[in-house]
Amino acid sequence: MMDNKKGRAFHFLLSAHLAAAGILIAGAAQATDVGAQFVHYATAENIVFDRTAFSHPLTDGNPHAIVHVTQNWNPPGSSGTYNVSPIGVWYVDSEWTIASQYWSEIPVGAAFNVWVPPVDASTFVHTANVVNTNNNWTYIDYPLTNNNPDALLRVTHNWNPGGGNGLTHDRVVGVFYSSNASKWAIFNQDLSAMPIGVSFNVTVLPNEPTVSVHTATPANTIGNWTSIDHPLTNNNPDAIVSITQNWNPGGILLGTYNDHPIGVWYHNGISRWAIFNQDIAAMPEGASFNVSAPSLESAEFVHLADTVNTTAWATYVDHPLSNDNPHALLFVTQNWNPGGAGGVFNDHSIGVWYSDGLSRWTVVNQDSADIPVGASFNVSIPAVDASTFVHTASDGNTTGNSTIIDNPETNGNPDAIVHVTQNRNPSGVGGVINDHSIGVWYSVGAGKWAIFNQDIAAMPEGASFNVSIPAVDASTIVHTASVGSISGNSTVFHHPHSDGNPDAIVWVTQNWNPGGSGGVYNNHEIGVWYTGNDWSVFNQDDTPMPVGASFNITVVDPPFFSDGFESGDTSGWSVTTP
Length: 578
Prior knowledge:
The protein contains one helix and 42 strands. By secondary structure, the chain is mostly beta strands. A hairpin with a 4-residue loop joins strand 40 (about 525-530) and strand 41. The longest helix is centred in the first third of the chain and has 17 residues, at about 5-20. The termini are far apart.
């Protein structure tokens, strides 16, 4: 684990170095911190009858965390599992759990979209008391929502905020705006009295394209479900969708009740997400929901370590999707000669580390060796969805030099493409160093993929990895080194996006046994380099590439416009034509 004094000293050293170079960190583009979002799957290992425990650096050991959950029937568009009960969150044994409000058993396979928003003025805990509670509702008295009928709220029952004693609440809830009180309220859909002492996590959603109100209409509703038509979720089975029932959006006079446990599911037939009643009851026309989903923004680029952005063993990445965003997931592959020019070796295990002092992600050498000026890295910052997540080695998932990934997208799928990058401190919390060359392998016995240390060294508990499961499509291949492809320490691969293209951006992860068969170790740090006609995977230490070594490879073309205007924003152009 990184020594805190060492970390603070490095923050100071790099900050001073940047200041001396005239770099003003506070003025750089920054991402909007939306917190951590991920999918939690209930398994036999994490279920204790009516609750399922999840682990995350922002919530472990933190009874004051704000957590929101939405039931997800079929991430990512696969078969689904019903859980016919309202849900809430409960802090027990130093971790947060998702609990069935009916005290019914959580079924194995139940899935939940989890959102841990940033702790700021938009998040708080509301507790019903004798002053703010009347009949079946409890008024929220908060500056961001008072006199604001257009506010959109996300609400989750919290059994015991702060980790103390609490109250269960076996009712379906929603929010409504009282024009008389000029306040929003949380209410019981079945009109039963709101109990004094019950608490709720509340987040006031931002006024952004990621947030909307969905209303069930005859055109979008069939049986117990209503389909969502939104560009962030259409054709996106990996979207992480969060919902709260809203009785009267905009403070309209009359609203619609829907006293049923709800969830979301992806309809493959129409390529859209839908909100559904878990008990199969018909979805009433007019039922409305506050809906949020992460942005689809992503980025792929080459990062060059230079004298300004590099100090000692770290080189900081300056990008708006990762700046001031400790929850960003970065995937990194060393690139010896981007654009086919230059060439700098960095024969060290690499990872990523978030610097709180700089509010930046950095690429680091795990052994703390200096990163050489001129070293280059292909960097991917994918959109937040169910196909990207952090895996942390624990006592329950680690054996010897391997830690097992338990995810429906990869379980039982030996042909999955898996990319991993070591993450010293996911969400900017904690930090365990694993200074070893890594790869992935498929355990036929377990029917699961695992991350492993190539040198057979024990995998340390707490080591974390960013994991991406890209779709198996035209951008992905598995390359196996053969006598014909190997030249010394490298193996050439062919791909239509990279052949003859020195500007292609390539990500590589070592794959011990593609398809679950065979298995060849390559205990060396790798990178990619452009040979003049093709790209190759190479061993940084110049060791010969072994026949049979395999690699998961994803290739993307660089943005069409290198000046950043590919988004369609022409405001910075000197001349435009109709």
